[in-house]
Write a structure and sequence with these properties.
single chain; Muramoyl-pentapeptide Carboxypeptidase, domain 2; 2 domains; 8 helices
Length: 282
């Protein structure tokens, strides 16, 4: 919680500084031309208005970040945390109503989103094709039929916890592990997880040649309560921010960090795929 007061203090200092600068413009000292505001002062005031507008926008963004941080801290402080028996993160819920149960679908600003997925690499489309072969010919924006026999042999369709997916077998197993850890840590959140799809043989949306990881059964789109997140707005559902920590810990990358934010998208990292190759799983 120490970070939140620091942010608030920083905003207060910025506001105080602007007030300190603006007061002399409106109330010049005696002997400096009386109470009238001269032309130079008017120019300074107009410039100050621009500074205030920019500061207001920054304050609004900081407020969103503070709200998000406070909600996540409330969740973490709900009970003791520590290594679970299976090596995952365990959060023990308190008795009584869950205070943030109704906030999982709340849309919040993603703080420092480009710094997410540290230590993990998004597998480049060219590397995926080199590793698995092309999933199909003549791909477009809509889902096509998978024609790669090797990939087809590795795919399975299963109900994994609250979602039904069609993905590579090791990806399904890993997804099951992640969702089970979420279930143990936060059963209320787990019960509200929904999916917008997994296997879809197509190009990346808006790309002319980049093949989507969905084409290889290596990605799944998740959301809260079936409410789709807006693509590219730098915001996401609170529940997805909580889930992302569990996915990162098991070697998945979160699409919130992409150049065009896609926070429903969870994808197996290159490091995880290489691990499966070494183990002979794919």
């Amino acid at each position: 919680m120490r970070l939140i007061p620091a942010i608030i203090l920083s905003v207060s200092i910025l506001i105080a500084s602007l007030i300190w600068v603006s007061v002399p413009l409106f109330f010049p000292p005696k002997g400096a031309g009386g109470g009238a505001v001269d032309n130079n002062a008017r120019i300074d005031i107009e410039l100050l208005h621009g500074d205030i507008d920019a500061l207001t926008e920054s304050i609004n963004q900081l407020k969103d970040q503070i709200d998000s941080l406070e909600t996540r801290v409330i969740k973490l402080e709900a009970g003791p945390t520590g290594p679970a028996a299976d090596g995952g993160l365990q959060i023990v819920s308190p008795t009584g109503p869950n205070t943030i149960q109704d906030q999982y679908a709340q849309v919040v600003l993603i703080a420092d989103r480009r710094e997410l997925n540290k230590g993990l690499t998004v597998p480049p489309p060219s590397w995926l094709i080199q590793t698995f072969g092309p999933p199909a010919d003549n791909l477009g924006d809509t889902c096509a039929t998978l024609t790669n026999p090797r990939l087809a042999a590795l795919l399975e369709e299963q109900q994994v916890g609250p979602v039904k997916v069609k993905m590579l077998k090791p990806a399904i197993e890993s997804l099951g592990i992640v969702l089970e850890k979420i279930h143990k840590a936060d059963p209320d959140l787990y019960a509200r997880i929904n999916t917008a799809g997994s296997l879809c043989v197509r190009l990346v949306r808006g790309s002319a040649d980049a093949v989507s990881a969905h084409s290889f059964g290596l990605a799944v789109d998740l959301n809260i309560d079936g409410i789709l997140d807006t693509l590219g707005d730098g915001r996401t559902q609170l529940g997805l921010t909580i889930m992302s920590d569990f996915f990162n810990a098991d070697g998945w990358v979160w699409g919130a960090a992409y150049g065009r934010e896609d926070s429903m998208h969870f994808e197996v990292s290159k490091e995880k795929i290489e691990e499966w190759i070494k183990q002979g799983l794919i």
